Amino acid sequence: MTQIQIRNTTTQDYPRIVELNEAEVQQTSAMDTAKLSTLADLSCYHKVALVDGQIAAFLLAMPENVAYQSENYVWFAARFPQFIYIDRIVVDAKFSGLKIGSLLYQDLFSYARAHGVASVTCEYNIEPPNPASKSFHDKFGFKQIDTQWVANGSKQVSLQVAEV
C-alpha cells in the first residue's frame, strides 16, 4: 500500500525540489537552489509530500507583507490586506493520480484556517492554456478575479482567490 506523508521542507530537500521545479518550469518559473532558499525564507508554508519516502511534490506559499517582487504576488498584495499566496506547487508526473496536489492544498487550507487567514490566492497560465490547473483550482473553490500578462508579455495568467 502506498504511503503518502506531508512534512515541512528541510534544506536537504532542496536539490529534489529544484529538480521537480525544472521538470515543470514552463508552468512555474526557473528556480535554482539560491532562489529556492530566498523564497523559503519569505514563505509561511513550505512543505513536501513523500510517497513511500520519496519526495513526490512540494508547495511553497507566502503570506502578505513580505518583500517578494513576483508580478503576481505584488498584484495580490496591492488588493488584499491578508492572504496566503501559492507561489508554486509541483507534483512529479510519475505520481499523478494519487491526489497529492489535493492533499497539499487541503493541508494549506487547514494551515490558513488555523492562522486566521481568510483568502488563499494563486494564478495559473491561461495563455498558453493550462486546463488541468483550471480544473484542479475549480475543485477548491478558486474564482478568477482578473487576468494579467506577465513574463514580458509571453504568458497571460488567471488571478485566482479562494475563501478559506
What would CATH call the architecture?
A: 3-Layer(aba) Sandwich
The percent range for strand residues is 25-35%
Number of helices: 5
What is the CATH topology descriptor?
A: Aminopeptidase
* SS class: alpha+beta
Low-confidence stretches: none
Q: Give the biggest sheet.
A: 7 strands, mixed
Nearest-integer average pLDDT: 95
Shape: globular
**What number of domains?**
1
Terminus-to-terminus distance: 32 Å
What is the class in the CATH system? Alpha Beta
Give structural notes.
By secondary structure, the protein is of the alpha+beta class. It has one domain (4-163): Aminopeptidase. 31% of the residues lie in helices and 34% in strands. It is built from five helices and seven strands, in the order βααββαβαβαββ. It has helices spanning 14-23, 33-42, 71-77, 100-114, 131-139, and strands at residues 4-8, 45-51, 54-63, 84-91, 119-127, 143-150, 155-163. Strands 1-2-3-4-5-7-6 form a seven-stranded mixed β-sheet, with helices on both faces. α4 (100-114) links the parallel β4 and β5. The model has no long low-confidence stretch (mean pLDDT 95).
List the defining traits of the structure above.
164 residues, alpha+beta, Aminopeptidase, 7-stranded mixed β-sheet, 7 strands
Which secondary structure elements does this structure contain, and how are they paired or packed?
Elements lengths: L3 E5 L5 H10 L9 H10 L2 E7 L2 E10 L7 H7 L6 E8 L8 H15 L4 E9 L3 H9 L3 E8 L4 E9 L1
Parallel strand pairs: 4-5
Antiparallel strand pairs: 1-2, 2-3, 3-4, 5-7, 6-7
